[in-house]
């Protein structure tokens, strides 16, 4: 089976596209999509769809398969690509930007895609995939290599009626046991059957604002899009930061229709936001993709005051095929092992539970779940063997069924309960994963030795971690894990890889997976002497109780517990366990700091909290009196190549990737240079959207860094100058942050310079551990920082007495500097102006920027200070640098936009500041013009 093979028309309404087109015609001004902080109406989306549809027709031929691939980033172009593909009679194939190029290239080849749409941010990735020695002409379509389509290729065409045949609507790839992803092609008739069943069950309306919490490579995203556009509602696409604090975005955006995996709801609960005030706007809540704990479902119901449903279904049966409706509060519920049932079949679908002998399982007995009905896919692309094994004809049970591989049981009411997986296929973080695929990748890297991947916790319906074991191999396990990160999505990379001399076997002589799991999760021996033994041992045990895959050695060696293997949800659980175990009180800011601590630093901190010892003498983070030790230049400048702080990786990656980013930029560049304030506050997609609204399309680049010194930032600016000179690319404007704290007389801390050392060949990118996505430079987002999967960055509203003394001291230093009470260092000003001069050599519009402050009346108080050092210092910089510096009072933000005195938060502050920065840049450019 290939995409090129279609079936004759069945005169079915192709409503996935036609619903949207009808809504665009009848209600062009109605909101259809909100993404990157910008709202698009149905009419605006339809115009953009017209442009991409014209580009698809111009770039493809009848000889090629009717398939359009696209990079599924969270951009408006991704959603336009979906609709444009359907408009042209193509199936759409999403490629996940988080996946390695090799995996995306394989998906593109196997789908037979005739073209690949890339947003401005993804153009470089698209070129990399299509420019390869791999023979792209051998794809399923057989019509030659795919064409790359960008915004510049858009050719508007009339929105004529699309065909109504029963071709394929989309193709998604799931994990395959042989190491090769399996393509599942869903026809329009499958999708229409699902939508009809959904609308018969759920009262969506045009007034609803739909959450879009899933990646577009996840089939549950199909529900979000087409349920929304059929109802005439608005699809709200959260940012990565929003997904780290989902309750805030639900309340801010007025979401009414929620659909997510249960773990996202659990994150809300752990943050203490599962309450009526936060979630009262929700009127419809569906969960799918993971087992739903009954307690979580009931708490969610209490918080929203509305119904809660648990949906279930494999990709092969089009999104979901069963549903369970939680009874009203106080009514009896059905549960098993604390989990909600997956319910009963959707209208039109059938379920069947078979025992191993092929007979129907009686009530209360377990068996494999099979599903049947109009939502069933044809099978797997170009894989008749797997299709025959999974899709079976059972005339005695009334038709063709799909074998889910899930072990279930049904009670006397007909409600179905998930028990576990029959094979070793699992779902982790909402993604379905074949453990065999991971094992195959590892086996290729360990000389063919036997490999077993164990999901943890053992026997859990909702595993959170993977642990790999290899038999009889003594190589470098860390190197294997690092290599896996370049071949597999992050959710498929095991937390740890352990070597066993010989795998245990069962009575049949086969590898005993259960025994291996029990063996590798056995608690290690007690900690060695040294640090406070009892506390350290308890902390290690708490970490391992949450993620048993993490070894004691890794906990002791890792620079922080996030790098050791805890994600954000797990780290939140860990901090709650600390409070309960040791009777200590933690606050959000301290938790954020703890997420960057090694266990060697955590244990003394816990001891001090237990003893109520104040921490005032430690000073603000990064401003310790002695810069030696810890994560900075601890061993001296001569060892910089080996000991450079991992946060400096962002600058090094920028140097490595910026030239290609520049080459792929479709518009004049807008550069944002500075320290942590700029790094946190400049969101490239928001800046680009706002600049486009103002009539100035730009390609934005966030070049802010959080670890470079003033001199280090100047080095980076000089590198950027040289790169742009060589490329000959036009610049729109440059906004350069005036980092006052780095030019003050306060202790310089542990900031460093790395750019010249890297350019001189002092070390390679691979030598710097990639611990946090905040500290990488990703061209796909224009350098915009994303929250580490799992790293919780709190956004406190201000300093309170309950917060650590170091933060209060830092806030005082910032305030005094802005009030003009802090002495500034002329030599640092000279270094700063050297960086500004580098930018002025290549751009006529360079403006300075003083980060706004979360305080009122600063400018007035400063003006009343007869010894005010602030204003004269700024005027001197302007005079000597020959450029204007925008005062912090020009950037008016709300108190809830800040996470501390002089940094915006990611929940809303970064987007607000980014729009103001874009407006300032365009205004300055217009004045220059």
UniProtKB/TrEMBL annotation:
InterPro entries per record: AA_adenyl_dom, ACP-like_sf, AMP-bd_C_sf, AMP-binding_CS, AMP-dep_synth/lig_dom, ANL_N_sf, PP-bd_ACP
Gene Ontology terms for molecular function: phosphopantetheine binding
Annotated GO CC locations: cytoplasm
The protein, known as: Carrier domain-containing protein
Record-linked PROSITE patterns: AMP_BINDING (PS00455), CARRIER (PS50075)
Taxonomy, superkingdom: Bacteria
Gene Ontology BP terms: amino acid activation for nonribosomal peptide biosynthetic process; secondary metabolite biosynthetic process
Cited Gene3D superfamilies: 3.30.300.30, ACP-like (1.10.1200.10), N-terminal domain of ligase-like (3.40.50.12780)
Region (Disordered): 611-640
Domain Carrier: 533-610
């Amino acid at each position: 089976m290939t995409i090129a093979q279609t079936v004759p028309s069945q005169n079915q309404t192709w409503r996935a596209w036609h619903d949207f087109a009808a809504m665009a015609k009848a209600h062009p001004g109605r909101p259809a999509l909100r993404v990157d902080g910008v709202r698009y109406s149905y009419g605006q989306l339809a115009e953009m769809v017209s442009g991409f549809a014209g580009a698809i027709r111009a770039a493809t031929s009848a000889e090629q398969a009717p398939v359009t691939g696209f990079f599924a980033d969270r951009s408006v172009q991704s959603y336009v690509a979906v609709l444009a593909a359907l408009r042209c009679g193509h199936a759409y194939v999403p490629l996940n930007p988080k996946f390695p190029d090799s995996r995306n290239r394989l998906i593109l080849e196997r789908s037979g895609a005739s073209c690949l749409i890339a947003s401005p941010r993804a153009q470089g990735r698209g070129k990399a995939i299509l420019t390869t020695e791999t023979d792209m002409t051998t794809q399923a379509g057989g019509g030659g290599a795919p064409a790359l389509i960008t915004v510049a290729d858009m050719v508007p065409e009339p929105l004529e009626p699309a065909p109504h045949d029963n071709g394929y609507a989309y193709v998604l790839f799931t994990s395959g046991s042989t190491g090769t992803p399996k393509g599942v092609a869903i026809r329009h008739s499958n999708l229409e059957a699902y939508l009809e069943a959904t609308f018969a069950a759920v009262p969506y309306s045009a007034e609803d604002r739909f959450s879009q919490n899933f990646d577009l490579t996840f089939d549950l995203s199909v529900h979000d899009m087409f349920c929304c556009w059929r109802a005439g509602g608005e699809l709200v696409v959260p940012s990565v930061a929003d997904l780290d604090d989902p309750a805030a975005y639900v309340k801010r955006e007025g979401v009414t229709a929620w659909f997510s995996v249960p773990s996202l709801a659990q994150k809300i609960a752990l943050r203490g936001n599962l309450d009526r005030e936060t979630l009262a706007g929700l009127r419809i809540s569906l969960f799918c993709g993971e087992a739903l704990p009954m307690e979580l479902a009931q708490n969610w119901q209490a918080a929203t005051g509305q119904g809660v449903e648990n949906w279930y279904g494999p990709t092969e049966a089009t999104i979901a095929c069963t549903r369970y409706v939680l009874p009203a509060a106080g009514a009896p519920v059905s549960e098993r092992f604390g989990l909600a049932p997956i319910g009963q079949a959707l209208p039109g679908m059938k379920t069947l539970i078979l025992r191993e002998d092929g007979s129907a399982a009686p009530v209360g007995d377990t068996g494999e779940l099979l599903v049947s009905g109009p939502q069933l896919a044809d099978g797997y692309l170009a894989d008749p063997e797997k299709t025959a094994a999974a899709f079976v004809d059972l005339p005695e049970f009334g038709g063709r069924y799909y074998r889910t591989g899930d072990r279930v049981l049904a009670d006397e009411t007909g409600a179905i309960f998930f028990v576990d997986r029959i094979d070793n296929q699992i779902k982790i973080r909402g993604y379905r994963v074949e453990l065999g695929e991971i094992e195959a990748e590892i086996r290729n890297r360990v000389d063919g030795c036997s490999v077993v991947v164990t999901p943890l916790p053992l026997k859990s319906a909702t595993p959170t971690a993977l642990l790999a074991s290899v038999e009889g191999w003594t190589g470098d396990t860390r190197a294997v894990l690092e290599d896996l990160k370049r071949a597999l999505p992050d959710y498929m990379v095991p937390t740890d890889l352990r070597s066993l001399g010989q795998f245990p076997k069962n009575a049949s002589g086969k590898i005993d997976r259960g025994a291996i799991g029990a063996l590798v999760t056995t608690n290690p021996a007690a900690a060695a002497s040294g640090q406070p033994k009892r506390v350290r041992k308890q902390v290690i045990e708490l970490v391992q109780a949450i993620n048993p895959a993490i070894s004691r050695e890794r906990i002791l060696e890792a620079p922080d517990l996030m790098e050791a293997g805890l994600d954000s949800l797990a780290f939140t659980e860990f901090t709650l366990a600390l409070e309960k175990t040791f009777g200590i009180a933690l606050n959000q800011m301290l938790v954020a700091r703890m997420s960057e601590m090694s266990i060697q630093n955590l244990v003394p901190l816990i001891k001090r909290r237990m003893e109520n010892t104040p921490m005032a003498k430690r000073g603000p983070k990064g401003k310790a009196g002695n810069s030696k030790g810890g994560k900075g230049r601890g061993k001296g400048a001569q060892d910089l190549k080996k000991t450079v702080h991992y946060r400096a990786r962002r600058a090094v990656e920028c140097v490595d990737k910026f030239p290609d980013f520049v080459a792929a930029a479709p518009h004049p560049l807008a550069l944002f240079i500075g320290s942590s304030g700029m790094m946190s506050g400049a969101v490239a997609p928001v800046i680009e959207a706002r600049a486009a609204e103002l009539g100035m399309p730009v390609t934005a680049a966030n070049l802010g860094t959080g670890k470079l010194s003033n001199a280090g930032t100047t080095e980076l600016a000089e590198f950027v100058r040289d790169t742009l000179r060589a490329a000959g690319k036009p610049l729109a404007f440059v906004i350069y942050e005036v980092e006052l704290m780095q030019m003050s007389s306060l202790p310089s801390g542990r900031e460093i310079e790395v750019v010249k050392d890297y350019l001189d060949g002092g070390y390679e990118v691979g030598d710097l551990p990639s611990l946090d996505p905040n500290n990488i430079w990703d061209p796909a987002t224009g350098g915009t920082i994303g929250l580490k999967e799992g790293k919780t960055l709190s956004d406190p509203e201000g300093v309170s007495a309950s917060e650590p003394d170091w933060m209060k001291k830092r806030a005082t230093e910032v305030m005094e500097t802005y009030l003009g009470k802090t002495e500034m260092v002329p030599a640092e000003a000279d270094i700063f102006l050297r960086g500004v001069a580098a930018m002025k050599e290549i751009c006529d519009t360079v403006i300075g920027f003083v980060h706004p402050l979360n305080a009122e009346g600063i400018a007035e108080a400063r003006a009343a200070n007869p010894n005010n050092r602030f204003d004269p210092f700024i005027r001197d910089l302007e005079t000597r640098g020959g450029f204007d510096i925008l005062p912090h009072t020009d950037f008016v933000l709300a108190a809830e936009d800040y996470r501390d005195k002089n940094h915006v938060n990611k929940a809303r502050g970064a987007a607000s500041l980014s729009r103001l920065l874009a407006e300032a840049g365009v205004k300055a450019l217009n004045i220059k013009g």
